[in-house]
């Protein structure tokens, strides 16, 4: 049973989220403290993180979780501008929920992230692209570029896997939202660019060549799929 860690200083919100998540069959840990959240991190499969914590700024905690290669993080916050959302994603958040929110929507987003992290996989060997420069293994949700294992968040993995499904095909931001999220989310379309930026950064100097931008349309994989020998 996956465990969700709720880091939220408002008790009523913690309790409502706990009840909804437990009804969905998930194990739940809760805390109002950023310092305690770091101690509980090893026991969590996913973190719901409020940015307005009393002891540690939530963005600092988000950065620390990312540096520790901790579990995926869904941010819960009243900071609702596009700039705030993009900053959160750049710091490593896998999703971003603004207050007030529907607890049911939060459960759906948690389930979507956990599904991408632990969902069913395909049989077979890694698929390679660009004369074996890029390799993607759907069975283990791992990818390599130039034989270097890429440390990807669930959303970054989902984007790379979606784009690689049809090399050369252009995917609009709207298509990528639905392929990666598994449901429509009004407003998320604008933040796909931030996830692509993070993914390209992890791809290194070749990032813009591996994932190409088609102005006014969207993104495509810039490497052809290698023929199976």
Task: Please characterize this protein's 3D structure.
It is a single chain. The protein has 229 residues and is α/β, with parallel strands linked by helices. It folds into two domains: 116 residues, 3-Layer(aba) Sandwich (Rossmann fold); 95 residues, Winged helix-like DNA-binding domain superfamily/Winged helix DNA-binding domain (Arc Repressor Mutant, subunit A), CATH 1.10.10. Helix content is 40%, strand content 21%. It has nine helices and twelve strands. The strands form three sheets. A five-stranded parallel beta sheet has the order 2-1-3-4-5, with helices on both faces. Strand 7 and strand 8 form a beta hairpin. Helix 6 packs across helix 8. The chain is elongated and about 55 Å long. 34% of the residues are buried. About 2% of the residues have low confidence.
- The string of secondary-structure elements, in order, is EHEHEHEHEHEEEEHEHHHEE
Distance between the termini: 40 Å
CATH secondary-structure class of the largest domain: Alpha Beta
Q: Give the total of domains.
A: 2
The CATH architecture assignment of the largest domain turns out to be 3-Layer(aba) Sandwich
Class by SSE composition: alpha/beta
Helix content: 25-40%
CATH fold-type name of the largest domain:
Rossmann fold
Strand content: 15-25%
Point out poorly predicted stretches.
119-123
Average pLDDT rating: 85
Rg of Cα set:
18 Å
Strand order of the largest sheet: 2-1-3-4-5
Shape: elongated
User: Sheet bearing the most strands, described?
Assistant: 5 strands, parallel
């Amino acid at each position: 049973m996956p465990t969700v860690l709720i880091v939220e200083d408002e008790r009523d919100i913690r309790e409502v989220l706990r009840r909804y998540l437990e009804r969905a069959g998930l194990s739940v840990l809760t805390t109002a403290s950023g310092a305690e959240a770091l101690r509980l991190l090893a026991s969590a499969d996913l973190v719901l993180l409020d940015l307005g914590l009393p002891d540690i700024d939530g963005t600092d905690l988000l950065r620390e979780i990312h540096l520790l290669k901790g579990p995926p993080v869904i941010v819960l916050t009243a900071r609702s501008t596009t700039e705030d959302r993009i900053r959160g994603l750049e710091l490593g958040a896998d999703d971003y929920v603004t207050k007030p929110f529907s607890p049911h929507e939060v459960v759906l987003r948690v389930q979507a992230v956990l599904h991408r992290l632990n969902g069913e996989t395909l049989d077979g060997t890694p698929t390679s692209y660009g004369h074996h420069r890029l390799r993607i293994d759907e069975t283990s949700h791992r990818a390599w570029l130039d034989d270097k294992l890429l440390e990807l968040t669930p959303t970054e993995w989902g984007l790379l896997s979606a784009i690689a499904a049809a090399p050369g095909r252009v995917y609009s931001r709207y298509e990528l939202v639905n392929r990666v999220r598994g449901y429509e989310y009004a407003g998320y379309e604008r933040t796909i660019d931030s996830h692509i930026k993070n993914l390209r950064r992890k791809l290194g100097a070749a990032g813009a060549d591996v994932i190409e931008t088609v102005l006014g349309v969207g993104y495509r994989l810039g490497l052809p799929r290698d023929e199976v020998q």
